[in-house]
Amino acid sequence: MASGSTEIFLGIDVGSVSTKMVTLDVNTLDIIDSMYIRTHGDPLSSLRVIIKRLHQMKPLPFIRATGTTGSGRFLAARLVNTHIIKNEITTHTLAAVKILPEVRTVVEIGGQDSKIIITRDGHAVDFAMNTVCAAGTGSFLDQQASRLGVKVEDMGDLALTSDSPSSISGRCTVFAETDMIHKQQIGIPMNDIVAGLCRSLVRNYLSTVGKGKPIEAPVIFQGGVAANRGIVKEFEKQTGLRFQVSPYYGVEGAYGAALLASMVKAEQPEFKGFEMLEKTFKINSFICNKCEEACSVIRLYRDGKPVSFWNDRCGMYSTGEING
Amino acid sequence: MNIGLPQELLHIDWIADLKLMLEQMNPGMAFVHVSAGEAPAYLNLEEDSCFPFKKMIRNALALHKEVDALLLPRVVEMDGFLACPNFRAFPDIVELNTKNISSNEKKPIVSPIIKVKNNKELKAIAKTTAKELNQILDFTSLPKLAAMPKTNQNQSALNKTDIQHQDLSKTIAIIGHPYVLADKRLNNGVPELLNIYGYDTVFSNNVPFEELSELARSLDYFAKKMYWRSAREIIGAFFFFSHINRSAGIIHLAPFNCGIDALLRIELMSMHKRIEGAPRFMTIVCDEHTQRDHVVTRIEAFLDMIYGIRIN
Predict the structure, then answer these.
(1) Distance from B21 to chain A by nearest Cα, in Å?
(2) pLDDT range class, residue A16, cuts 50, 70, 90
(3) Integer Cα distance of B223 and B16 in angstroms
(4) Do the beta carbons of residue A80 and residue A273 sit within 8 Å?
(5) Closest in B297, B305, B311 to A83, CB measured
(6) How close, in Å, is residue B226 to chain A by CA atoms?
(7) Fewer CB within a 10 Å sphere, N or C end of chain B?
(8) What pLDDT score was predicted for residue A159?
(9) Average pLDDT of A155-173?
(10) CATH topology for the B161-307 domain
(11) Least confident of A4-13, A130-139, B11-20, B115-124
(12) Residues B205-236: tens digit of each pLDDT
């Protein structure tokens, strides 16, 4: 480690809609920096943006350990060279418990995922996640905001101005959209439609993801959708509980991944993320037909040479047994 | 002579025993369970079915081209409890889909009704089936059934390992329909994944059905007795792995939210809530996961809940 440089733990969360980064001071575990950007379907580019932000820190930090999470966690791990790869349920739990040790319910609504985690004594004891249906997630709100011509970040405040939220179907985004178009056509004010949308999203969450789960206080609300005050109000109304919005709601997964990195005692491999700024990285995939699984094997190239493989169920490529 | 018997049916103990008996009666019968070919792209009357059923129909149709006859048992009732109605209609749906096959390519379908409680009844079914196959395929010798053990239990059940006294405290129990548990394409590779992570697995069908059915009796408080055989199997297994010999965790694999599976999903969740210190429990609806990563995330989080966070 260069003298004078800050030593940090790094957490990266590559989600379907957004990519997040958190750095922690190794001694205090306080957050030094965080970043939230849109993935735009190009995780390689979004990762490059966050690595650039790290690289701009003066002096250049020494990264003691890095944890990755989110649906793009394996890709991120390959690029920065770490073995600390964790699912988002575990990392979100770690972060929530750190922020509010007595938390009993973690409600998380992200870009395409929504989850509920039941915690007792600082540990997850049950969880549920949405599956094939992305109704009631951030991407749905994004889509509707754009269709209604309002900024997604303004939706919450707009909803709070409504006294009579309109009735919108919460079961399916297609039905919800049809309902919203109809309400617009008959002249229902925009704030009432947006408030109705918030209500339907919460109803959808509670009847699908939260179905049968014991939602008990203290509740912590995280994920990008927690920024929407209209949703927070609706959750509180429909559950009768206070929903505490996490101060790091947008980067909670990355925070959890960084906390996880801080918990690993073993010495970690050298951080190679800065190579992303100097070298050319490219990914492609191929179908392996060596067995009936027909895996889509993902291949990472550095300066034109294949350096890493993953997503092969048998491990034939990822362990280096065979070169693709 | 090759007889096609879809592999999906073979995971049902009584069908496995029927095959054993038929083989014993006529060693000239060679069974084929999986086709190397493909089924027709468009099929009739399967749109609203679960994936296991669709897979079974496709397998039967693909087998059609490779065998001399198809044995498609019409499973109605086993051990006094009903099978899913899809099993009852299975031979008819396969037959309907063979209508476009030219008559000289068309293979006969033998579909004995499986309504069986004990070995004696199964022997009777085996004899009738063997006769029917014999007539169709013109075997030279008449089938004879060798002496089978005089027991009411099916042979496959007798071969089950005694897991009553095994230490399951570090093992994950997987409960569900036997054909889902055994087939990687139907169970999203969940058992395999747990093994890759280094954990042992035990299945609901490792416990004899008689025992599971007895355990399920405590739920016979509904308006009617729980009359679906698979429901008794799954509920019984849930009781077994949460009360009798407690496992570290229980995963319920449901093909999709249909009929009894939809009810079971809610029932098991509610039963789980009532058990003090119950093993961690999770349901995976296999049809709701289009990507392996979705399953990996859930399994990893489930294991983290049970064993603490592990870095691979």
Answers:
(1) 32
(2) confident
(3) 33
(4) yes
(5) B311
(6) 22
(7) C
(8) 93
(9) 87
(10) Rossmann fold (3.40.50)
(11) A130-139
(12) 999 999 999 999 887 776 678 889 999 999 99
How far apart are the CA of A134 and the nearest CA of chain B, in angstroms? 12
Mean pLDDT of the region B36-44: 67
Q: Nearest by CB to B297, which of A84, A89, A263?
A: A89
Torsion of CA A97, A101, A106, A111, to 10 degrees: -40
pLDDT tens digit sequence for B257-281: 887 888 898 889 999 988 888 999 9
* Distance between A111 CA and the closest CA of chain B, angstroms: 15
| Structure-block tokens of residue A96 | 């929530």
Residue of chain B whose Cα is closest to the Cα of A315: B196
Each domain of chain B, given as residue ranges in start order, spans: 2-137, 161-307
Q: Dump pLDDT digits (tens) for A47-75.
A: 999 999 999 998 999 999 999 999 889 88
Query: Which of chain B's residues have a Cβ under 8 Å away from the Cβ of A123?
Result: 305
Alpha-carbon gap, residue B53 to A254, rounded angstroms: 42
Please name the residue ranges forming H helices in B66-207. Answer: 85-97, 119-137, 155-158, 178-182, 190-196
Residues found in chain A: 324
Q: Are A85 and B312 in contact (CB < 8 Å)?
A: yes
User: Quick check: B34 contacting A, CB < 8 Å?
Assistant: no
pLDDT at position A172: 74
Residue A83 distance to chain B (closest CA, Å):
7
Residue of B38, B283, B297 to mutate, testing the A interface (most A Cβ within 10 Å of its Cβ): B297
**B266, B281, B309 member nearest A90 (Cβ):** B309
Helices (H), chain A: 43-55, 73-80, 88-99, 138-148, 155-160, 173-185, 190-207, 229-239, 252-263, 275-278
Tokens, residue B41: 């792209």
Do you know the residue count of chain B?
312
Contacts of B189 in chain A (CB under 8 A): 313
Say which CATH architecture domain B2-137 belongs to: 3-Layer(aba) Sandwich (3.40)
Q: What mean pLDDT is predicted for residues B153-172? A: 74
Cβ within 8 Å, pair A131-B289: yes
Rg of chain B's alpha carbons, rounded to an integer?
20
Q: Cβ of B304 and A87 within 8 Å?
A: yes
Q: What is the largest CA-CA distance in chain A?
A: 67
ipTM surpasses cut 0.90: no
Do the domains B161-307 and B2-137 match in fold?
yes
Q: Does B296 touch chain A (CB under 8 A)?
A: yes
Model confidence band, residue A315 (pLDDT cutoffs 50, 70, 90): confident
Which pLDDT band, with edges at 50, 70 and 90, does B46 fall under?
Answer: low
Q: What is the CA radius of gyration of chain A?
A: 21
